[in-house]
Amino acid sequence: MSAEWLARLVGEGGQGWSRARLHVRQFEPWMLAAILAVTVAAVLLAAWGVSGRRDVPRAALMVLRLVAAALVLVLILGPAVELERATRRKSHVAVLVDVSRSMSLDDGGKTRYAEAVAALSGPALKAFLDGRDADVYTFGAGLKPSTREGLETTAPEETASDIGAALADLARRQQDRDLAAVVVVSDGGDAALAAEGDLSARVGDWPRAPILALLAGDAASFKDVAVVHPRAQSLGFVRHALSFEAVLAVRGLAGRKLVATLKQDGAPVQSQELTPRSGAEELPLSFSFTPTRPGTFLYTIEVPPVEGEATLDNNLVGFAVTVRRDQIRVLLLAGRPSWDVRFLRSQLKRDPNVDLVSFFILRDPDDPAGVPQDELSLIPFPVSELFTSALSEFDVVIFQDFGRRQFLTATHLENLRRFVEDGGGFAMIGGELSFGDDYVGSPLEAILPVALATPRATTDATAFRPVLTAAGRRHYLTRLDPDGAETESQWNALAQLDGVNVVGPLKPGSVALLEHPRLKAEGRPMPVLVVGSAGRGRTLALTVDTGWYWGFREAGQGGTNLAYQALWRNAVRWLAHDDGSKFVSLEVSGGSGTLPVKSRLMARTRRNDYGPLAGGRVTLSLTPASGGAAVGSARGVTGADGRFELEVAVARAGFYRARAVLEEADGQAVDEDERLLAVGGEGEELADPAPRPELLARLAAATHGQVLEASGRPPRLDEAASFRAGSARLVPLWDNAYVLSALLAVLAGEWWLRRRSGLH
Amino acid sequence: MIGRRRFLGLLAGASVASLAGPRAFAIGPRGRFRIARALYQGGNSEPHPDALRRLAWEIILRTSVDADYDFPAVRLDDPALFATPLVYLSGDRGFNPWSEAEVANFRRYLTLGGLALVDDAAGRPASDFNLSIRREAARLFPNAPLARLPDEHSIFRSYYLLRRVGGRVLVSPYLEGVQLPAHSPILYCRNDLGGAWARDALGRWSADCVPGGESQRQAAFQLGVNVALYALTLDYKQDQVHLPFIRERLR
């Protein structure tokens, strides 16, 4: 029965009613039962009154009485028709299209994004969307309004895909509207959401509408090798193993042999071979590497490209690790026990930052001990091992009155030269065997900061007081006071020394800190304390064997042993390139966020006494770690606080090497420091970009939605919400003349028939 | 740390079989190993004038140490004491209490790294020198009294592996000393080491060693050499690299 027909029946026709519903009065159940019971009883009584009578029209009377009872019942129940004039509108849906970087991947001739855009015009969605009001959005890290046409010109460049946040944002934007459905077109590249076990807790933040999920990308044909979940410490120590862990996520490459390599600043240090057995496998990677020198290094775990890989952006992860020393490891070799060795050894042993290994030559080969060997405490001297495999375990090697004869071969000295050129420290301290002829022409001569005497080595036993040079007044080793004049005064007050090795002049690049007051080398004062460099290493020469006078003897004569302690404490640190000896240190901040990011470089410069260096000339630069032109650099002068800063906008993600160089007025570098900076970028977006159909299926299941196929059937929705109530009217069916007239007519007919039959 | 195991491994493969090499010398005479002789008031500070010369001769003969034959006599309050980090303090009778200046200077000397070999030349248990030195030692280090040095002390392994203490006599079978955290600044022998070292003008031993004879004299020289090496190397023989060898030989 149509609403309009019923409306006409009740006299309300022609007004465009679209829906009609019947209502009756609401009674308590017991009242309704009582009414029905009374009605039935009345009917039975009526039937009983005419039973057995053949002289009356029993059937007609019963019909009239039943009709009368029915009409009375109508009056009691009060039926009414509710007429409703409702309109049917288009239902409202939201369409969320993933525009993260992973959507730009090509799983088989077409990017995922192109697939997604095409799917909106495909059989599953075109008619569905055309028939509804569709609000179109794109999402990556956040939600952005768009249009179906606008999607054609949008590029998938977002550096994250956060489906959960996009749905929550949609719920806020659409809170005043009823959504019939939310269409999500994505590759499911939300690793964080995928990792959540139960989505029901998140559903409360999302629109109360079913999600119709459509996968972009082909999980079956997807091929990729990704190094994901990297873990490593950012701070390590020399000679302490660093561990690097990651997971190799391999898709679609079952049985393919893969090699993962750990590299330090681009140089391979360790490899692992892995073979995935299934099409989707996560293989743990674990590397352990022991750095041998301090510094800031870029460590990478890399896997070579595999043919057909979806992306190469995830084949490498990097770690910036600062490696420091826990202790400076010093090897001290002494040609004989002497007071000079004894006090140096005591000084080094006392230094908590020094781990000392020392060997003294206690006995000459022809010395008669007078007892069997096993009654001596002498031990073998592992010279070959020390100068081959063990050399790299030290930071500094010191020769004190130590000759090469009988001990050191050319190979040993060559190894020592290489050790220094690779960054080690070497010091030669005076004595009859030091700076001797047997070092002439040896690899060791090449790294000494001072030339050996010609034609042959000699010593001069005359007492003398060394003269502090201008460089010595400033240098980290010899500076005893912030004031250079005071430093000089303190050195001048120290005890005289007895004797010196006669050496040649300074080598180019070396610096004399103390000079002999009388002896000359090629016309210039003969150096006594010299510092220099060889390759990446530092070298020191002290041409006396009574340096201990500056300590013990000085202390006994009213002075202190502080100069001696400071000299060797600083010397060891300087030789070992210890951070504490730097005159410039670099602090770097920034690097995270959306590109371009602003990174701040701050150089902090110090005087030799570690007070801030005002007016220091500093160059700051930020360069890609892989090489190339600097993305920012500046040269300037430090303020009163010793600082100089540079802010750089970095547009490309990656690792950058920040560098600060403190320069002399003539541009010659005094000291430098550097740090590695990781700048923003892809983050986790392309870490593991495999399509995740299972995530989309879970989204649909959690919201009572459906998973769609791009070429499949359109979705079915309960679209009750598409009706909107208009005007309505309640028309009583009993409160009119028809019902009353009918009742009177029936009662009158029954009375007339009863009278005619002779009944009362 | 370069561990013991690591260095044991190194040493196991060592190709050079001893810490022996060409003799090295000091640049000048003052760079040599020199022993000072302590002067004090009262008593006899030089009971065996030739003893240190004989000891130095043996040190040069037996070790690579470039020892000097000059033995400056220095008062304990003299700053010149600091030119010689080892001082030999001997006597055969009691001596006057040291002045405050002597105690202060000597304490500073010993605390900063100096070493005193104290040798009781009286040759008997009841010795006035013994009483005097204990009195002064208590003034020097009231909180670190003279006490027996343990067998594993570096003095017994700095060159020779010593199991006994020699001397002209055997008043005490052990050495005493004051132990500070960094070193033992006072080593005290009651067996008259100098008497065992000394020769007369004709080169004969000045005194017989009793009761052990020449082996007792050799033990005295060995202890003297060890004192010299201890003064020059301190706890060198306690380094991890040495311990396994020393323990094996002492077994």
Task: Give a concise summary.
By secondary structure, chain A is of the alpha/beta class.
Describe the structure.
The complex is a heterodimer of chains A (about 750) and B (about 250). In chain A, β24 and β25 form a beta hairpin. Chain A has five domains: about 5-85 and about 730-755, no CATH class; about 90-220 and about 685-725, von Willebrand factor, type A domain (Rossmann fold, 3-Layer(aba) Sandwich), CATH 3.40.50; about 225-310, Immunoglobulin-like, CATH 2.60.40.10; about 330-580, Class I glutamine amidotransferase (GATase) domain (Rossmann fold, 3-Layer(aba) Sandwich), CATH 3.40.50; about 580-680, Immunoglobulin-like (Sandwich). In chain A, α2 (about 30-50) packs antiparallel against α3 and α3 (about 60-75) runs antiparallel to α18. Chain A has an eight-stranded mixed sheet, with helices on both faces. Chain A has a six-stranded mixed sheet with strand order 6-5-4-7-8-34, sandwiched between helices. Chain A has a five-stranded mixed sheet with strand order 10-16-15-12-13, with no helix packed on it. Chain A is rod-shaped, with a radius of gyration of 48 Å. With about 750 residues, chain A is an alpha/beta fold. With about 250 residues, chain B is of the alpha/beta class. Chain B has a single domain, classed as Domain of unknown function DUF4159 (Rossmann fold, 3-Layer(aba) Sandwich). In chain B, strands 2-1-3-4-7-6-5 form a seven-stranded mixed sheet. In chain B, β3 (about 85-90), α3 (about 100-110) and β4 form a beta-alpha-beta unit. The longest helix of chain B has 20 residues, at about 215-235. The relative contact order of chain B is 0.15. The model of chain B is unreliable at about 1-20 (pLDDT under 50). Classes of the chains: A alpha/beta (about 750), B alpha/beta (about 250). Chains A and B meet through α9, β18, α10, β21 and β23 of A and α1, α3, α6 and α7 of B.
